[in-house]
Amino acid sequence: MKIDKTIYLDHQATTPLDQHVLAKMAPYYGDLFGNPHSSDHSLGWESARAIEEATAQVAQLIGADPDEIIFTSGATESNNMALLGLGRRAAGGSRHRVLVSAIEHKCVLASARVLQEQHEFTIERIPVDRQGRVELSALDNMLNEDVLAVSVMAVNNEIGTIQDIEKISDYAHRYGAIFHCDAAQAPLAMPIDAIATQVDILSLSGHKMYGPKGIGIIFIARDQQDQIEPLIYGGGQQNGLRCGTLPVPLCVGMGAAAELLIGEDAGEKREDLHHRRDVFVRRLREMDWPISLIGPEGEARHPGNANICFLGLSAHEILGTLQPRLAASTGSACTSGLPEPSHVLRAIGLDSDDAEACVRFSLGFGTTDEDVERSIGLIEEVLAKLSKTELACSTWSDFSDSFRY
């Protein structure tokens, strides 16, 4: 996919708004502007009907019932609502521990830290292996009757690791813990039509699945809804769990995006994406430069993710030199600008130098074969340029034969 002069390979940061989705949203920015909570006239009824349809579409995507879907501003709010909502309601009780994987998104780790600092919960990080997979034996040893919740993301946003959600769910539920799953990256990575049967609480984000920014959902299983303390109070909308007037165009967009990811077409798109990503990685490996794919191989990885370590070079220098011809990133867009190395890369065993040499390329459904070939040419050109600098030349021969993952 090319935007003006830029090949876009940063789909895990955000996806472009699908034109079909935009078309579905457009009327609700125009004549169909009614407040969906206005129950006394037809404009309100029309907006309420649109909300109901969008809710049903999202519910179908994850295998839930519509009354278990709560619209939020995005996955960050949903993740905050999940952990803070659970913790504030359960504070002072016998379940005072919360387990989170070591590679969770920063908003999950930050929410957990608030529970520790303000509500005296004990927060423990579940270790992962070098591929980013949760160590199930460690999780089993950590679980006990005093664990309130386990939070593990379905698909990692930096290295693409797909977790075994069913097994993690079994472990958590065996001890009566609530299982929360940040699934923001999952819709493009795998079918999730049964995931609601495996988790108690789940978060999604519209702009990670070809929908609009500013909208997301939290799925809360019906029998868990009384365990959540709301973050926002008001007129009692959405079962009183998240009050405020719903943004009808955004909700419609979220529903339309969910509809795109239901059915055989979505499966075919994922397969094509997987193939194109594999070609991209193979072409990188065919270059004369020492690179390594960070994270798992094959089906255990997001089909569009390629986190590549260019040891001895700076990821920021690579990306800067590529501008404006190619867009990729050093990891989570939510942590860009921070000076410390990625906590995800450190958790899987990379040291600071290696972590700072990693670039996340994330292909999308709109990425073409031509985009892949052109990207390889641009990357090779940039590596040749940077390798001639004094810093790169001084270290190149030291690692070219020794670096292996």
Task: State the main characteristics.
405 residues, Aspartate Aminotransferase, domain 1, 40% helix, Aspartate Aminotransferase, domain 2, single chain, 2 domains, globular, disordered C terminus, 3-stranded mixed beta sheet, 7-stranded mixed beta sheet, alpha/beta, 14 helices
What is the number of beta strands? 13
Domain module tally:
2
What do we call the CATH homologous superfamily of the largest domain?
Answer: Type I PLP-dependent aspartate aminotransferase-like (Major domain)
> What class, by secondary structure content?
alpha/beta
Strand order of the largest sheet: 3-9-8-7-6-4-5
Helix content: 25-40%
Report the order of strands and helices: EEHHEHEHEHEHEHEEHHEEHEHHEHH
CATH topology of the largest domain: Aspartate Aminotransferase, domain 2
**CATH architecture type of the largest domain:** 3-Layer(aba) Sandwich
Put simply, the count of helices is 14
CATH class of the largest domain: Alpha Beta
Shape: globular
Low-confidence stretches: 399-405
Q: Average pLDDT, to the nearest integer?
A: 94
Radius of gyration, in Å, reads: 22 Å
**CA-to-CA gap between the ends?**
30 Å
What share of residues are in beta strands? 5-15%
Main sheet makeup: 7 strands, mixed
